[in-house]
Amino acid sequence: HTQRDYSYLYIPHPTSSRNPLAATHTLRESTIMFASGPNAHSTSSRSHGYQKVTGNVPKSAPRRSNPIKRIGPMASIPQQGGNAQPLKKQPIEAREAIRMGIPSKGRMAEDTQDLLKSCQLSVRKLNPRQYAAEIPNVPGMEVWFQRATDVVRKLMTGDVDIGIVGYDMLREIGNEDEDLVIVHDALGFGGCHLAVAVPQAWDNVNSLSQLKSDPRFSKERPLRVVTAYVNLATKFFKDQGMENVVITTADGALEAAPAMGAADCILDLVSSGTTLRENNLKEIEGGRVLDSQGCLVASREALLKRPGVLEIVHEMLERLEAHLRANGVFMVTANVRGSSAENVAEKICSGGSLLRGLQGPTVSPIYTPQNDGTTKEGQFYAVSIGVPKTRIYETVKSLRRMGGSGVLVFPMTYVFDEEPPRWTSLLAQLGLKAEDFNHLSRGEAPVAR
Question: What is the model's pTM?
Fold first, then answer.
């Protein structure tokens, strides 16, 4: 109480409250801290900072006669531990339905559904107030909307078989659980990283080594770190050999903790870094804990024991891989003169790696109409090449130098491999033979063995 001569009032953040400033006229020289998280009844998953608001009331305003009763600490329960009961694993035979869990709210939920829709795996919710849904193109699978943290927990307990979640949550909640298998580690959305951030006023602290050797912190006065990632933070500081650290947890609005004096620094997700800068914080060298983005995860037990799960994962993985690989790739087609298809192919391949496409140029004859109504082969050949979007014009100029004309450019939607590399990797993780599942890519019935 001797650290400051002003008071804090927590109210819901403006992004989640209908009338956040309704009570400001009753305050006199007080500081309002807009907070997110359950303690402020906020629906925002990330803080957009704090604002300072002052108000005036008559000096004769009545004072509270009874002392304020402290309800409890302003921190949330750790992810695991404390008095929480250990997660109980459901037996595989407890249900027959195949279940997939996806985030229910926020940007992660929107990006997940957008990606699935782009892969012709649109999620259909029969009732907007229910949490159950389906994917019509994947019959026999239930889709359940859950909080991101609960997607991981339900994978661990066996309540769902497949899930889409951020890698940060997978590492924090899953805590390297052996039953969790990463099927696809780069879905292309939710990109961010988990990092340590300190006040910008700390001019002499710009790296983790400088923070570690800072004389202000000791066993008697440890470094106070606030984070929503207790497990990852504990492991990170332990691996760095930093013993004089106390880690506390909160659900959101972490950026204000150092300014309030509630913590010395934070460990939180960073995307653009704007929120840190607006709250006078900075990242430090060596303080990057991990990189994160959306990933597809499955239960090892479900993959091996629940009928149909492996087949559904194969189809989803093929669709996702084909769509993500095609992202940013364009097909360039041009008419090129030549004496034969082989002659044109040699000419194109001599133009460098850019003109070789995914596996090589596709060359096919063009049949030119003649005056007598017949067609003649051999004057022009159509050349098709897949190239990155950033190199389209460079490719067009190269084709022109080789006599190309009538150049067409159009985006690619899917690029299907003979078999997705991640599928082969998944089978290896599960100890399964790839040749036993060749029928899946051909849409054939399994061969009896």
Answer: 0.77
